Amino acid sequence: MSKFNVLAQNTPRNPFVALCDYASRNNWCWKIFCTTCGHGAFRVTFSKIIHDQHPDDKSFWTNGQDNAAPLKELEKYGDFVRDATVVNQLKLASIVAEAKILDIQSVAKFPDWLGYIGLVIHHCPSHEARKAMSDSFLPQFIAMVKNDKEICEYLQEKQKGQELLSIDDLERIENIFIRSHKQ
To answer: What integer best gives the mean pLDDT of the chain?
Structure first.
């Protein structure tokens, strides 16, 4: 085994990538305006992540991994239940921004992985938090959609103008993926 492979095995994956993996396998709700669950599982797990807990650790899942299980810890991890502080938004956004979209895409179903990113944008509306995610994700999305001139140019203009990635942008990207798979 090479030195690189040993290092890769000992390096934990990004906490957001791990969360996306668990959420996708357990069919967590990611609908931004859901009035049934309000994506409470994500709100609790976002809080746990900013408190340096990692979804790959068994202790993270004290109540299980289904959509309702994290809600049992809502009182202890309620940083994202209401409007999160800018500091907490920036903490989460920084962790998410370190993730590679291809890693997220490799562990989560389509279009769920775009929805998970959308939830972070929704719960981290501060300029600082959205800028951290935009600076990381816009170039990655541009590389992913390079074969679609219209969306690629749109995202490049957004990047050039230092505009922030939005939920509407994720919907446009989703439509590109749907269109490209129909052809």
So the answer is: 92
